[in-house]
Design a protein that fits this description.
Distance between the termini of chain A: 38 Å
Radius of gyration of chain A: 16 Å
CATH topology of chain A: Rossmann fold
CATH superfamily of the largest domain in chain B: Alpha/Beta hydrolase fold, catalytic domain
Largest sheet of chain A: 8 strands, mixed
CATH class of the largest domain in chain B: Alpha Beta
Number of domains of chain A: 1
Number of helices of chain B: 10
CATH superfamily of chain A: Vaccinia Virus protein VP39
Number of domains of chain B: 2
Largest interface: A-B, 21 and 28 residues
CATH class of chain A: Alpha Beta
Order of helices and strands of chain B: HEEEEEEHEHEHHHHHEHEH
Strand order of the largest sheet of chain A: 3-2-1-4-5-8-6-7
Shape of chain A: globular
Helix content of chain B: 25-40%
Oligomer: heterodimer
Distance between the termini of chain B: 43 Å
Helix content of chain A: 25-40%
Number of helices of chain A: 8
Strand order of the largest sheet of chain B: 1-4-6-5-7-8-9-10
Structural class of chain B: alpha/beta
Number of strands of chain B: 10
CATH topology of the largest domain in chain B: Rossmann fold
CATH architecture of chain A: 3-Layer(aba) Sandwich
Strand content of chain A: 15-25%
């Protein structure tokens, strides 16, 4: 059993209480699912768009279906899970606001991580380079990126306010994936990605 | 009851087990008829463990039977799922007790239209009550009661076998720890019913069929049954697979024959499929089994909401479909997945990339084997089933 996972996944895993039910939307190769199952006895399910990812997950004994956040969350009943997790995928959905709404309908809590489009490196490249930014957390060219709804940390906070969603926790990571503690305007400048835990108000 | 068997049934029963059930308590069929006594022919591989926790029920599709992993007593061909079941395979008899039951209405030893009606002593033929997937499953459950098997570690089946898996999970959720419906649907589509109807009409249009009483007249509606099989066989293959296998290649000739012999290899292939099917399948059985599939509508049986079939189920599900299967396309599996999600059931779903059409589930598909093996590993760990030493 592998007990070391990516830093942002570890942060998410730490937010999940043991012996709960969780749905990981966009679960990739199932690293987080396996961790939650093996180390926190979570009844963890997954949803993944790529067939290769799904097949790898199921072949290793995880409960995963092929599906995507925009279309397939609707099939779940209210409060089916304690947590619905969306790691680094919100910016690639067609309707992020609706996806968030569905997550908070299906789950008692939602955990969302996303890259911060207001990170200073992004700002520099846009302002002085005059080009679409390419960074470690945003590695794509403008024409092949799956990220169609990028946002900043402050944008995300505004959306939560707008939707009447309570932010229970917010962790901002710098470009070395280390948590930083700063007031929101600075976090929005120095954070490369963020992890939010939300609940319905 | 064991009299009057066809040669095929005699050979089948000599190579498998059977039980006579429903003597005291007949099987109440969906059509309202009480059937009993009735015979159930089945085959087993491996041994039931002490705590009876390692039983796996394999459900066979329309044109296969209980001889999953051994040479077939009638055709002499290898078992239809030998790629999956056997020593060292995903379903290893060293670890699991594997059971496959010839379904009700079939013709390899289980009671069907070939049998005699107990009340009159006359052959049932077309007077045999129409059976459903639900009836087949209840007969299997009665057999498990008879064998003293309280529940199943897993139930697996493709196509019509997959329908039985879904029916099992819906009817006996507490007896099914895990379920693997492959290349199937929760109901038969209009197109599927249409193809079956062509097959049935071909059988009934054969003058040798004689209103279903062909055994009394000592005839065989071989041509009708062969055409039914030919039609069905096309639906089991993808356009791509047919093209790759045959294209427009000619059969044993260098030029078109300007006649109606089998000029093309694909014609010759289908004719062969049709004529060999007649040796191992009974025409009336074909009518009954295709009807059972047509009648299958799991949502319909649960107030029109498929999710209702699975409410509160603790069964672990793993569904698989194949990209080129147009008989039971992926979207029909996905419908089941959505219903299972809506019922908050534990479900995995894999669409396997294959250009072999519906038949892919019977073929060597490593992705399917890997998925099933991983799923069973996970399920066994939760169930506390020990690995094979």
């Amino acid at each position: 059993m592998n007990n070391s996972i990516r830093v942002d996944l570890q942060l998410i895993a730490d937010m999940v209480k043991p012996d709960t039910r969780a749905l990981d939307v966009g679960c990739g190769d199932g690293a987080l699912l396996a961790y939650l199952t093996n180390f926190k006895r979570v009844d963890a399910r997954g949803m993944e768009l790529s067939q290769a990812g799904v097949n790898a997950c199921v072949a290793s004994g995880l409960s995963v279906i092929q599906g995507d956040a925009d279309a397939d969350l609707r099939a779940y009943p209210d409060d089916a899970f304690d947590y619905v997790i969306l790691g680094q995928t919100l910016q690639a959905t067609r309707e992020p606001r609706e996806v968030l709404r569905q997550m908070l309908r299906v789950g008692k809590r939602a955990i969302v991580s996303f890259p911060n489009f207001a990170h200073w490196q992004v700002r520099l490249r846009m302002v002085f380079g005059g080009r679409m930014p390419q960074t470690t957390s945003l590695p794509y060219k403008w024409y092949d990126t799956p990220n169609i709804h990028l946002c900043s940390i402050d944008d995300f906070r505004a959306l939560c306010r707008d939707m009447g969603v309570r932010i229970e926790r917010a962790i901002v990571l710098n470009s070395k994936s280390r948590p930083i503690r700063m007031p929101p305007p600075l976090a929005n400048l120095f954070g490369e990605q963020a992890v939010f835990m939300l609940r319905r108000d | 009851m064991l009299q009057d068997l066809t040669d095929a049934e005699k050979m089948a029963l000599a190579q498998c087990r059977h039980a006579v059930l429903g003597d005291g308590q007949p099987l109440r069929l969906d059509c309202g008829v009480d059937l009993g006594p009735y015979r159930v022919a089945y085959q087993t591989y491996g041994t039931l463990n002490a705590d009876k926790s390692n039983a796996i029920l394999v459900c066979h599709p329309l044109s296969c039977d209980q001889f999953v992993a051994e040479r077939h007593p009638v055709t002499g061909k290898e078992g239809w799922w030998e790629s999956l079941v056997g020593p060292g395979k995903v379903l290893d008899p060293a670890r699991y007790f594997i059971i496959c039951v010839n379904v009700l209405g079939h013709c390899m030893g289980t009671t069907g239209p070939l049998a005699r009606e107990p009340a009159t002593g006359q052959p049932w033929n077309l007077r045999f009550p129409v059976v459903t997937i639900g009836d087949m499953v209840r007969a299997q459950a009665a057999l498990l009661d008879h064998l003293g098997i309280p529940d199943l570690f897993c139930i697996i089946g493709g196509s019509m076998g997959g329908m039985q898996v879904l029916e099992w999970a819906a009817t006996y959720p507490k007896r099914v720890f895990s379920a693997v419906p492959i290349a199937c649907a929760a109901h038969h589509s209009a197109q599927n019913i249409a193809f079956h109807e062509v097959g049935r009409q071909a059988i009934m249009a054969d003058p040798e069929w004689k209103g279903g009483d062909y055994r009394l007249h000592q005839t065989v509606p071989a041509r009708g049954l062969a055409v039914a099989r030919m039609t069905a066989h096309i639906t089991y293959l993808s356009e791509q697979a047919l093209q790759r296998k045959f294209g427009r290649a000619l059969q044993d000739r260098n030029a078109l024959g300007f006649g109606f012999d089998a000029d093309f290899q694909v014609e010759s292939y289908l004719r062969h499929q049709g004529s060999t099917f007649v040796d191992r399948f009974d025409a009336n059985s074909y009518l009954y089994i295709t009807r059972a599939m047509d009648y299958f509508d799991l949502a319909g049986a649960h107030g029109g909401v498929l999710a209702n079939a699975f409410r509160g189920s603790a069964t672990r599900f793993c569904l698989m479909s194949f990209t080129s299967d147009w008989l039971f396309p992926t979207r029909e599996s996905r419908e089941i997945v959505h219903a299972l999600n809506a019922a908050a059931a534990n479900v995995s779903f894999v669409e396997v990339a294959s250009d072999k059409g519906h038949d892919a589930f019977l073929l060597d598909e490593p992705e399917m084997f890997r998925t099933l093996s991983g799923f069973l590993k996970g399920a066994a760990a939760v169930r506390g089933l020990k690995e094979v030493p």
